[in-house]
Amino acid sequence: MARGDAPRDSYHLVGISFFILGLGTLLPWNFFITAIPYFQARLVGASNSTTRILGTNHTGPEDAFNFNNWVTLLSQLPLLLFTLLNSFLYQCIPETVRILGSLLAILLLFALTATLVKVDMSPGPFFSITMASVCFINSFSAVLQGSLFGQLGTMPSTYSTLFLSGQGLAGIFAALAMLLSMASGVDAQTSALGYFITPCVGILMSIMCYLSLPHLKFARYYLANKPSQAQAQELETKAELLQSDENGIPNSPQKVALTLDLDLEKEPESEPDEPQKSGKPSVFVVFQKIWLTALCLVLVFTVTLSVFPAITAMVTSSTSPGKWSQFFNPICCFLLFNIMDWLGRSLTSYFLWPDEDSRLLPLLVCLRFLFVPLFMLCHVPQRSRLPTLFPQDAYFITFMLLFAISNGYLVSLTMCLAPRQVLPHEREVAGALMTFFLALGLSCGASLSFLFKALL
């Protein structure tokens, strides 16, 4: 709902721009993890000219560098670090510098990754350069995402939804790009080069979209608002931010994280001895109210990142070599996960179950730990300790369906329930705490992936 005196978003250009910016913020992470087979092939010294490096799994003892574990860990640690440092960075560095600087840095680092496709290099230096790129790219992505969230705070909620819909589709976009590269029929080196050029084009489009915003009257009207002016819209924004999007695009947990303090649908009643205060709420008091929900969020992401993609990317088809075995992991692991995760997040737009007072939520979250042994007992070749109890492809596909949709739903549910457990003036602190615990869960899961892979 826009203000009555606001200009129109002609041709929806601002909405399209924020959708592309949302897509651009999560392209780096998704393109790196989807291309794990390419990196593993390079790290075992496979020749680009003789090996189809996209869509080929290299697992077991050959994966001496533990690439899929390290790429997950070094992608999530920057998120945790910049979650802790965001207040300092955002006060010291102008917004335009943070956004454009991050986009340009990501573009240059992805260009380096694409260039390395054509460069013959021994595995050790290639691994070091790639890990440094992963760390820096995700550091800049964390700054970029936080800065864009700040800008979206001054705009109608529809634009937050479009931005986060773009983020939600980034994984699907990366998986489809991988499949198209594999199906193109060109040689392996050209296929990999085309794959890594794709996110460069996406980042360039994001830069163009951001540069166009100051030239669009609708964007200028909202983005030029000072904090004192934005406060005049506070009640109106609160009323709309947690409603379903008018265009039918469901809300996502990232949107809820952005607007945790704006949920007016259900407010906890104040205790007689706990009047609403206008001062700064206590972090400890807020934590006492949401600790169980925050713990559930940590556990959901811990389970997810402990096996995805470190273990799931190692699963191969049990069928004889052919087209299906070549496309099995990109389709059944990455594409299927991203689609079902997005659908799971969408479900909270229609119902929230269990509610914040139910003890069933921790039980559901803990049940997801069953996915760890289930995936570890799937068809992972060259294992040295555990047996293969679920060799058929149907087992892995079924596990992935349940794993992905439960991840999306439970993440979205916990992020929706947290603001309902605190007083209205405490929701900003609750939002900051939940964002921190989200990053903590991702980092814990990435760290545990080393242990689970070693147990194979």
Automatic annotation (TrEMBL):
It catalyses: hypoxanthine(out) = hypoxanthine(in); uridine(out) = uridine(in); cytidine(in) = cytidine(out); uracil(in) = uracil(out). It is a multi-pass membrane protein. GO terms for biological process: adenine transport; adenosine transport; guanine transport; hypoxanthine transport; inosine transport; neurotransmitter uptake; thymine transport; uridine transmembrane transport. Coiled coil: none annotated. It comes from the Eukaryota. The keyword Magnesium does not apply. It is found in: Apical cell membrane; Basolateral cell membrane. One of its GO terms (molecular function) is purine nucleoside transmembrane transporter activity. Gene3D superfamilies: MFS general substrate transporter like domains. One of its GO terms (cellular component) is plasma membrane. Keywords: Cell membrane, Glycoprotein, Membrane, Phosphoprotein, Transmembrane, Transmembrane helix, Transport. The chain crosses the membrane at residues 12-39, 70-90, 97-117, 129-150, 162-186, 192-213, 290-315, 327-348, 360-382, 394-417, 429-452. It holds the Pfam family Nucleoside_tran. Belongs to the SLC29A/ENT transporter (TC 2.A.57) family. Bidirectional uniporter involved in the facilitative transport of nucleosides and nucleobases, and contributes to maintaining their cellular homeostasis. Functions as a Na(+)-independent, passive transporter. Involved in the transport of nucleosides such as inosine, adenosine, uridine, thymidine, cytidine and guanosine. Also able to transport purine nucleobases (hypoxanthine, adenine, guanine) and pyrimidine nucleobases (thymine, uracil). Involved in nucleoside transport at basolateral membrane of kidney cells, allowing liver absorption of nucleoside metabolites. NCBIfam families: 2a57. This is Equilibrative nucleoside transporter 2. It comes from Macaca mulatta (Rhesus macaque).
